[in-house]
Amino acid sequence: MLKSKTFVKKTRSGGVMKIVREHYLRDDIWCGTEGCVECKQEETVLQKDVHIESNLCSFPHYLLPDTNVVLSQIDILEDPLIKNVIILQTVLQEVRHRSAPIYKRLKDILHDKEKHFYTFTNEHHRDTFIEREPGESANDRNDRAIRVSAKWYSDHLKKALSEEEIQIVLLTNDRGNKEKAVESGLLTYKCEEYVKSLIANPELVDRLALTDDDKNEITSSKVLFPEHLPLSRIQAGIKSGAFQQGTFRASRDNYLEATVFVHGEGDQSTEVLIQGLQNLNRSVHQDLVAVEILPQNQWVAPSSVVLQDEGPKEDDATEEVEAEKTLKSAAGGAESRKPTGRVVGIIKRNWRPFCGMLFLSQIKEATRHLFTPADRRIPRIRVETRQAATLAGQRIMVAIDGWPKHSRYPNGHFVRSLGCAGDKDTETEVLLLEHDVPHQDFSQTVLSFLPKMPWSITEEDMAVREDLRHLTVCSVDPPGCTDIDDALHCRDLPNGNQEVGVHIADVSHFIRPGNALDQEAANRGTTVYLTGKRIDMVPELLSSNLCSLRCNVERLAFSCIWEINDKAEIVKTRFTKSVINSKASLTYAEAQMRIDDTNMNDEITKSLRGLNSLAKILKRQRIEKGALTLSSPEVRFHIDSETHDPIDLQTKELKETNSMVEEFMLLANISVAQKIYDEFSECALLRKHPAPPPSNYDILNTAAKSKDLVIHTDTAKALADSLDAAQVDGFPYFNTLLRILATRCMMQAVYFCSGMDSDFHHYGLASPIYTHFTSPIRRYSDIIVHRLLAVAIGADSTYPDLMDKHKQSALCNNLNYRHKMAQYAQRASVAFHTQLFFKNRGIMNEEGFILFVRKNAIIILIPKFGMEGTVFFENKNKPSPKLTFNQEATTLTVEGHTFNMFDKVKVTISLDASNIQHQKIRMSLVEPVILGVSVAPSEDNQPKAKKAKLDG
Amino acid sequence: MAGLELLSDQGYRLDGRKATELRKVQARMGVFAQADGSAYIEQGNTKALAVVYGPHEVRGSRSRTLNDRAVINCQYSMATFSTSERKRRPHGDRKSTEMSLHLKQTFEAAVLTNLYPRSQIDIYVKILQSDGGNYSAGVNAATLAVIDAGIPLRDYVCACTAGFVDETPLTDLCHAEESGGGTSLAMALLPRGGHIALLQMDARLHQDHLETLMEAAMTACKSISKVLDQVVRQHLQEVSALTGE
Amino acid sequence: MTSNKSAVWKTVSMAADMRLPTIRKQVSLSASLSALDGKDLVVPGDVITSDTGFMRGHGTYMDEEKLTASVAGEVERVNKLICVRPLKTRFNGEVGDVVVGRVTEVQQKRWKVETNSRLDSVLLLSSVNLPGGELRRRSAEDELAMRDYLLEGDLISAEVQSVFSDGALSLHTRSLKYGKLGQGVLIQLSPSLIKRQKTHFHNLPCGTSIILGNNGFVWLYPTPGHQDEEAGGYYTSLEPVSLSDREVISRLRNCLLALSAHKVMLYDTSVLYCYESSMPHQIKDILKPEVMEEVVMVTRQKLMEQEG
After folding, report:
1. Which of A307, A583, A535 shows the shortest CA–CA distance to A436?
2. In a designed cystine with C217, which of A519, A727, C108, C213 is the match (CB 3.0 to 4.6 A)?
3. In CATH, what number is assigned to the domain containing residue B79?
4. Using the beta-carbon criterion (under 8 Å), do C44 and B37 form an inter-chain contact?
5. How many domains would you assign to chain B?
6. SS3 call for B108
7. pLDDT at residue B103 is higher than 50
């Protein structure tokens, strides 16, 4: 044990508190260099043979970047070319403090054995530790620490390496630091200089983030934005209440508008509206910003205008003004005004690499181009690249470096290319990346935890499990389903009751807590179903084979078995690990046919009928309790088996058997939820669905009012009843439309840990407690629930993380995030395939209903395809038709024709491929016929005048 | 932003120690002339003073007198200036009362009280500076003071804390580590026989982890005992060298 | 963590003698190692022997058949008996020991006396000399008049008469040299520093008397001019003590403290030598560490010369 007596005093301002901490300096911290004769290290990280060819340094060398280089040029460091880098503890700590995402990336590099990055704990090394001198700022001290360590390294390497001379190259962008470093005899370069000197990889230069010096060149000297306030003033402002702190959320439809979500205590959260470029003040979606609320007389209403930042015009100040004017004129009455503010400073940027496309500069030789992100909430980014020609038409990733106050757009740099735009694989890649869906192939480490094939059930397995192979178990799923995670059985008992069993694939038997497979599954959280593609949560061997409860094979299951009387009341519940042998894998349609076919009377059919009749009673009881039946149109593509292009599109049809299976899954989930909560009141993983705040129902209410109906939204039960009663004669689809609207009023259901929350209620299902148990193949939450249940029945043992409510809670957050992203990705995938479908089909005429009315557009739902789109009534190139918007009745009058909600309209649908980045489904109005607005129903494929368009 | 990183990837803790290393321990015996026994200990920045009076006639209420062994009376207190925020009252609050009780239990297990029927032994522990592991520093100081007073002990009582971060047990937690969340286990051990005199932990810990954590705490206690042993022997030699002639 | 507060020193009219802490000097063991020769030092928990042929004495206990030390100190073997004598301990009285003690309680027929031992000692009414003859019967009146002789807080010198089974001492004052103590200074030291001698009462040549109680309590008082035997030891002179006497007593007190701090055994010679060695210094300076060290060193030398 080597300890030094040196103490360091660290003071934290704020009050007169003085904190004294010990700081031990050690002499057993090694340099990590291969072949070092002085250090007694066991393993080395830095290689003895360093090969990196550079014009500047022709000799072998290690790189030692300072903090700012790491922060700004992490993309460079991530490149496989850059190896043998020393990351000082000082740098690592500063990075950790300043940017969590970059810290994570840096850590990933450090863990990568191939990269040979070494962390040198210089702050605890006897020779490299320095104390802050009086008058020295923390930053200067750290810079000095970096120089001292670099010096130590170069001296050390000279002494310690016998044959080869390896030098240290300090990378810093700070001029002062560089000068001082050169003074003390260190080899120092600016990151840019160094990267440019690399012979092997010229395109690495593109990934360089722009440094301060370059920014000035690019932008005009005109100051476009107000200065951001320094952090200290922001903090003071927030403390005094002058400013509010919140998450910046750019509007999807209007680039000049955004809201800032201010987190308050409890239900005190509010939204602040921000309008206009000046007020947005260089905020980017998801940034943590400080806003100042404007005086009440400057408050405005959120505009219903849809505005897009068109065209890459450098000099578009005039246009902006016009656009802002439109905004202002569009502002509604005083009553709809909302708290409005302006961004005074950025507390924390939340930049990530963005997917999108390059918009080439008109000047041919230019190396500076504008990049348009796929996500419309992100502004265009100015990048510098020499590969523009190659990158045009490709989907690329770009990272933002900064946004100076005299630049209209932020500056960024190229990260990597994803492939050709419009390409199905590329587009899928883009939407997976944009939605942060982990989709890499499973690593070897993960796969190593899979069971060895051929796999069979062993004696030991049988000994601890109940043998249910004799039961007539069958599964009912959508067609083509390969990951069957549930199966059912039903049989009569001698006492007149029925025994119903739900058998769920025993995934937790294969995925043991804590191993790489488990960690990967926990990170992925859920299987993502895209059109024509599935991103598995667990490797295929498990999802489609060992865990899939296919028919006529023996499979391990976790069974929930009830004894149910003829009133569908549960007499007894038990849970057991089991072995089953499914007798049939049916589709919903097949199951339905068996039930309906009176000639069939085999065991399976009888079992199905028993289940079906019980399910009907269960459903009725549930609805009586106030469960909601909501609707959202779901589409299904028929995919061409060879080209994988969609050839037909139809909404999913629901059969009785769908709800039969669903009913028993709900029952199982509720039973399990109760059981695990009883057993583990602190750490049960549950799912809740909070009741929406009354204001959420506004849209629904106005919509119903337009048809003179009243919807009661006080309780779930009232809502369900009034939805049932809401019928309009001769308009059978109205009820569905209303339910679609009601669905949008709902809150997100979320996972949570029972020890961290007190409200367990599931609003939609009208159940006091709920969890997910029935799909462990595709949801990680279910695996955790399985483990909890297994412990509860004594079939398995606990492990530490399972019992830790904080870790559980963190896991829940990840699962909720992944689920949300999976849903978005799914929708995006459907939208993309809809586009593909229409691309192949040309222009089609369809009927639709108006779902919402906006100030300058109507949003239309096409029931046949379950898709919605917007018909615009304004266009830049043409004089706008006369528009009158009635806020109260939500009607829009266009040239004398009034559009109401739920009106039936006819539109033509086609694909607008003019902008390859955002291919759009264009909708144009056909009926009602309005002069100068509507178009003729068209059979030919001629592009129409841009009267109206639609986004898929 | 994120909280403190208690254990770096390189295996160093906030103050540069490795997971199982103890802080620097310095101790002295016989710091007061008037008391029967006294000792002062520094474990890193935690500084504790212990004073022992007795065994003597039971003072105060006679009813506490035990006819078969000595009564041990402990008082734990913290100097008002010992924490970064000044303390209102040095003793008598719940925490101190609890600590006093812990000390009493610890030393009842170690002192051969049956040799002194009807008498009383007072142990006063004062924390002069608090930087985590107050109880352990108190126990270690009190052990030295008891030895200094010539009161017979079964063995040294050595105490140390251990905590758990990212599946790794840390020993001898400093204040930042103690308050950084997670588990903190205090153990008082009679190192030679491996008897645990006191084991105290407030936080939840999974039973799978308990064994490794106890193991770590025990090892730490044994290392502490080596340090204390050195101090005692040094003191013993010094004093007997002086009186020796 | 510490909260550091800038200390504000109040200016007191009397100048306080302040000094910065100095690094503690390590006693050079090599020099005095010879003194350690043949000494068997143990600490609690040390196994002294696993041989079962020995008898367990004080400071030891049997732990799984092994004779183990329970205190830190020196092992003493007397034939088959093994004891460990701790460096410092409360007074373990033996019959015949001279003690100085303070009365803590007056009970029926006895006084309780605090003598720095594990339990308070007992002074029975029947063990004191009462005025009017040694063999006088103790009557009920005497019991009522006990407070006339000794009150709570009074200091006495006495001799151990017997030891009770629980370790408590029974004292007696049936000699004219024992009894209530009058004007003087009490110094409480460690009992292990008092050297056992034939007599513990000394009239020092410097005009002061000293009682070196075996229990570590030392009493300094002006040598009485005439032996007032009539008083039976319960008469206290209230005559003012002269300044010179008080100075001598003060000097002796500081000398005793100095000797004790350096763990020098106390007996008439060592006290006297120390007194002499301290003469070049002012009384109050004796307690300064460097002076103390010098005085003690000179004393030690004198003692060695005398012995050798």
Report:
1. A535
2. C213
3. 3.30.230.70
4. no
5. 1
6. helix
7. yes
Chain A residues whose CB is inside 8 A of the C4 CB are 18
Q: Which residues contact A92 (CB under 8 A, 6 or more apart)?
A: A103, A106, A119
* Record: contact B83-C3, CB cut-off 8 A: yes
Domain-terminating residue out of A199, A220, A250: A199
Put simply, the chain B residues between 108 and 167 with a CB less than 8 A from any chain A CB are 131
Using the beta-carbon criterion (under 8 Å), do A17 and C4 form an inter-chain contact? Answer: no
Classify residue A693: in a domain, yes or no: no
* pLDDT, mean over chain A: 80
Chain B residues in contact with A30 by the CB 8 A cut-off are none
What is the rounded distance in angstroms from the CA atom of residue A736 to the CA atom of residue A714?
A: 21
A260-269, B171-180, C295-304, range with the lowest pLDDT: A260-269
| Residue at B11 is within a domain | no
Q: Is the pLDDT of residue A33 over 80?
A: yes
CATH C-level class of C41-86: mainly beta
Q: C32 at the B interface (CB within 8 A)?
A: yes
Domain containing B40 equals 25-244
Angle, CA C85 vertex, CA C80 and CA C86 arms, to 5°: 155
For residues B133 and C1, is the Cβ–Cβ distance under 8 A? no
Q: Give the confidence band of C297 by pLDDT, cuts at 50, 70, 90.
A: very high
Query: Is A50:A167 a contact under the CB 8 Å cutoff?
Result: no
In a domain, A321, yes or no: yes
Q: Residue B122 forms beta bridges with which residues?
A: B53, B73
Q: Dihedral (C-alpha) B18, B22, B23, B27: value to the nearest 10 degrees?
A: -160
What order do you get walking across the sheet with C81-86 strand by strand?
C41-42, C73-78, C81-86, C55-56
Domain check: are A195 and A297 in the same one?
no
Who contacts A821 (Cβ-Cβ below 8 Å, separation ≥6)? A435, A436, A437
Question: Taking Cα atoms as reference points, which of C82, C72, C84, C73 lies closest to residue C44?
Answer: C72
Cβ A89–B22 below 8 Å, yes or no?
A: no
CA distances from B55 to A564, B146, B152, C101, C120 (A): 74, 10, 11, 16, 10
A549: in domain: yes
pLDDT tens per residue, range A818-869: 999 998 888 888 888 887 777 777 777 888 888 877 777 788 888 777 777 7
Cα–chain center distance at A545: 29
In C, what residues contact A, Cβ < 8 A? 1-4
CB pair distance less than 8 Å for B206 and A5: no
C278: Cα separation from own chain's centroid: 21
- Look up residue B229 and give its amino acid: D
Q: Is residue B1 part of a domain?
A: no
Q: What is the CATH number of the domain that holds A261?
A: 2.40.50.690
Give me the DSSP letters along A196-263: HHBSS-GGGGGGPPPPHHHHHHHS-SS--SPPPPPHHHHHHHHHHTSEEEEEEEE-SSBTTEEEEEE-
- Shared domain for A537 and A636, answered yes or no, is yes
Tokens (6 digits) for C106 = 């007056």
Helices (H) and strands (E) in chain A — how many of each?
A: 26, 37
Question: Which CATH number covers residue A123?
Answer: 3.40.50.1010
User: Measuring CA to CA, how many Å separate B33 from each of A335, C88, C264?
Assistant: 83, 11, 14
For chain C, what percentages of helix, strand and coil (3-state, to nearest 5) are there?
Answer: 25, 25, 50
Q: Is residue B9 part of a domain?
A: no
Interface confidence, given as ipTM, is: 0.89
Residue B10, domain member (yes or no): no
Tell me the C-alpha distance between C252 and C220, whole Å: 8
Helix (H) / strand (E) element for A179: namely helix A175-183
Instruction: Calculate the alpha carbon distances from A866 to A848, A924, B63 in Å.
Output: 10, 17, 87
Assess whether pLDDT exceeds 60 at residue A740: yes
**Cβ(A597)–Cβ(A612) below 8 Å:** no
Alpha helices in A465-547 (DSSP H): 507-510, 516-524, 540
